[in-house]
Amino acid sequence: MLQGRTTISKFLIEQLRGADDQADLAALLVDVTAAVKAIAAMTSKGALGGYLGALASSNVQGETQKRLDVLANDVLIQSCAWSGLVAGMASEELEQPYTLPPQFERGPFLLLFDPLDGSSNIDVNVAVGTIFSVLRARGIGDPQPADYLRPGFEQVAAGYAIYGPSTMMVLSVGKGSHGFTLDREIGNFILTHPDLRIPEETGEFAINASNERFWEPPVQRYVAECKAGSTGDRGRDFNTRWIASLVAEVHRILMRGGVFLYPRDCKDAQRAGRLRLLYEANPMAMVVEQAGGAASTGRQRILDVEPTQLHQRVPVLLGSRSEVLRLERYHQEYDSGLDKPFVSPLFKDRSLFAEGPRA
Ligand code: MN
Ligand code: MN
What confidence score (pLDDT) does residue 346 get? Predict the structure, then answer.
């Protein structure tokens, strides 16, 4: 059985045989794998490693940084800066892209990452992850911030690691999405989930329901119909899930289907959505599409969004294809005034109450 096991480096070398810089891309992804193993070692030590807790600092998004956010960021930079494979890197935790020190050769790729996704879950021992995206560098010399602003369809590779009961990596180089499990005894990722396929249909949806009053009508309509279950328009029951960690949500959807929604809302007029386009939405959209699913803002395919800022946020609706297409249809119908006026059951109740107690 042992000789039948495919390590992640063997898999990447085989998938990326041939064309010019493909061997370099394989080598870069192996460097990312090395960083992931180091981050897995830190997260698995938990409180014993002394890595938990928050720092006094906050990142460019104004969010409190956890000690592990910063450590994971440093590990990725150290693992990938030296090898002559990247021209520069951009991270959720850094306001400006990272410029390589002068002694290192500039390589053909840009690496973008969310070093520790779901880090608010770290202190409660719920799965966290690392998300990464690879673009081809353009021009020579050090890349400028604008060089990172490229639509997701230009990604040459993307993926994530999940630090759960087992550590896994799921990645795509544009030839399907594939899952690998870390064998800690031999220190290597082994191909365990080749050619992941997201089931077209699902009975699970995930959304932060506390924001319901801020959602747009098409999303309120969709969620109300799911909640109405077998007694409503959908004619069948749904279950809800919410882990508040993008990596854990996407991983569940890749394993057994479902749909994840972080829609546009009117809670904060400065933000079109919650998730970052370059470090979260784009890489996850590539992995999901390569597994037969769909990823949309509700009004546009995520991978087609033209970025305007490094830390830009977008609405994200992703997962089982038929559900994402339905959500896009609800947005279209709403925008063109074609849908029957949708009133959330929440507001129906309120207007009833507003009439006062009936005699
Ligand atoms: Mn994140
Ligand atoms: Mn993060």
Answer: 52
Helix 217-228 and helix 321-335: axis angle, to 10°? 130
Helix axes 22-45, 67-81, angle to 10 degrees: 150
Residue type, 231: T
Give the pLDDT confidence score for residue 354 in this predicted structure: 38
pLDDT tens-digit map of 304-332:
999 999 999 999 999 999 999 999 999 99
Domains of the chain: 8-193 (3.30.540.10), 204-336 (3.40.190.80)
Residues 67 and 119: their CA atoms lie apart, in Å, by 9
Ligand nearest to the CA of 72: 2
So what's the pLDDT on residue 136? 96
For ligand 2, the distance from its centroid to the CA atom of residue 55, given in whole angstroms, is 14
Q: Residue 277 CA: which ligand is closest?
A: 1
Say which amino acid occupies 146: A
Residues around the ion ligand 2 (C-beta < 5 A): 92, 114, 116-117
246 C-alpha vs ligand 2 centroid, how far in Å? 10
Ligand 1 centre distance from Cα of residue 346 (Å)? 31
**Which residues in the chain show pLDDT less than 50?**
1, 347-359
Ligand 1 centre from 73 Cα, in Å? 12
8 A C-beta contact, residue 274 and residue 121: no
